[in-house]
Design a protein that fits this description.
Helices cover 21% and strands 14% of the residues. With 314 residues, the chain is of the alpha/beta class.
Length: 314
C-alpha cells in the first residue's frame, strides 16, 4: 500500500465533533490523538471508540464482514490523496480507506468523468475507517469499506493545500426552497458524472438529494436505465453517496437486494420527498432520548479479530 503521503496523519488519531462529519464541517490541520480509553474492555463501551483508535488496517487478507450499518473490514486499502483526476478531502478524519475494489472504482470514475463530462476531477469525501466499523460521527453506514461520498463540487485547477482540504466547503446544489436544484451551480456535467457512476456494474445504489433525483429524471437523455440506481435520500445536497454491492467471494458480506421499480421518476415515486412535512418536519414534541452506542458485541463476531489484529505495515 502506498501510505507515504499520509504517514504524518497516521501518527495521530482524529478528534471529530459529535455533530456529524459532513462536507461542510471543517477538519483540523493539527489533529490531536484521542485519549486512551480507561476501560477498553467495558462491554457497554461504544464500538466507535475502539474503531476510531485504529489508525491502520488489520494485517489480514481483504475481507468484508457484516452489513453497511453493522460491520467491519479487514485488509482495507487507502485511496491515495492525490491523482491527476482526484483529490481527497478532510484528511484529518483518516476516512480514505475502503475495499480495494472501491478504491479502483473511484479512480476509474474520476478518469471516465474527466473524459465524458470534461470534469476537472472528483473530490473524494468520507469513505471508511482503516478497519471500518462505526465512526465517532457522521455516518451510520460506511462500515464495511463499500461506501464513499463524492463531492458535487468539481476539483479545483490546482493541488489543494492541507488547509484547503480541511476548510473548503462543498457547494450546495439545491435551491433554498428545496424543491429543485439551483441552476446556477448544477450543470449538465453533474448529470454525466452521476450517470458514469451509476453505470458502473459493481455500484448498487447512489444516494442523492430528492431535488437532484428530480433534475436527473428531467435531464437524462438516451439510455435511462441507470436512473434506477439513483435513489433520493435525506441530505446529500452537496455530495453523492456511492454504495457498492458485496464483492464476489465475500460470503460474510450482507448486502442489499438489487434496486427494483424502474427509473424511480414517476410523480408517485417522488411525491413523498416533496411533502411539506418531509421538507420542513415539525420539531418533536418531546426531546428524543439519545440512543445507546452500538457495542462490539452487536457487531459480527469476526470484527473482534479485525480489531485485535496487528497493524498492516505502511
Amino acid at each position: 500500500m502506498h501510505l507515504r503521503p499520509i504517514v504524518f496523519l497516521l501518527l495521530s488519531a482524529v478528534i471529530v465533533s459529535a455533530t456529524g462529519a459532513l462536507a461542510q464541517d471543517k477538519g483540523s490541520v493539527d489533529p490531536k490523538p484521542l485519549p486512551p480509553l480507561a476501560n477498553p474492555n467495558d462491554p457497554k463501551l461504544g464500538a466507535k471508540e475502539l474503531f476510531a483508535r485504529k489508525l491502520l488496517p488489520a494485517a489480514m487478507p481483504t475481507r468484508v464482514i457484516g452489513s453497511y450499518i453493522k460491520g467491519c473490514i479487514a485488509g482495507a486499502a487507502p485511496m491515495p490523496i492525490n491523482g491527476d483526476t482526484w483529490q481527497v478531502m478532510r484528511l484529518s478524519r483518516n476516512r480514505n480507506w475502503g475495499h480495494p475494489d472501491l478504491v479502483a472504482l473511484l479512480k476509474r470514475l474520476s478518469i471516465k468523468a474527466h473524459k465524458d463530462a470534461d470534469w476537472p476531477g472528483i473530490l473524494v469525501g468520507d469513505m471508511g475507517q482503516p478497519r471500518g466499523g462505526p465512526a465517532l460521527s457522521g455516518h451510520a453506514s460506511h462500515q464495511i469499506g463499500l461506501d464513499a461520498d463524492v463531492w458535487l463540487t468539481p476539483m479545483p485547477d490546482h493541488r489543494l493545500s492541507r488547509e484547503e482540504r480541511e476548510e473548503m466547503s462543498a457547494v450546495m446544489m439545491v435551491r433554498p426552497d428545496r424543491l429543485d436544484v439551483d441552476p446556477k451551480v448544477f450543470t449538465p456535467g453533474h448529470v454525466l458524472v452521476l450517470r458514469d457512476a451509476a453505470q458502473e456494474p459493481s455500484v448498487q445504489r447512489i444516494f442523492v438529494n430528492p431535488a437532484i433525483k428530480k433534475a436527473l429524471c428531467r435531464e437524462a437523455k438516451g439510455d435511462r436505465s441507470w436512473l434506477a440506481k439513483i435513489r433520493p435520500w435525506y441530505g446529500h445536497d452537496y455530495h453523492f453517496h456511492i454504495r457498492m454491492a458485496c464483492p464476489p467471494g465475500n460470503s460474510e458480506c450482507q448486502g442489499q437486494p438489487p434496486q427494483t421499480g424502474g427509473e424511480g421518476c414517476s410523480a408517485a415515486d417522488l411525491a413523498y420527498w416533496f411533502k411539506d412535512s418531509v421538507l420542513h418536519p415539525p420539531p418533536p414534541t418531546t426531546p428524543p432520548k439519545p440512543r445507546p452506542p452500538m457495542t462490539l458485541a452487536q457487531l459480527p463476531a469476526a470484527c473482534r479479530q479485525v480489531l485485535a489484529a496487528p497493524d498492516a505495515k505502511p
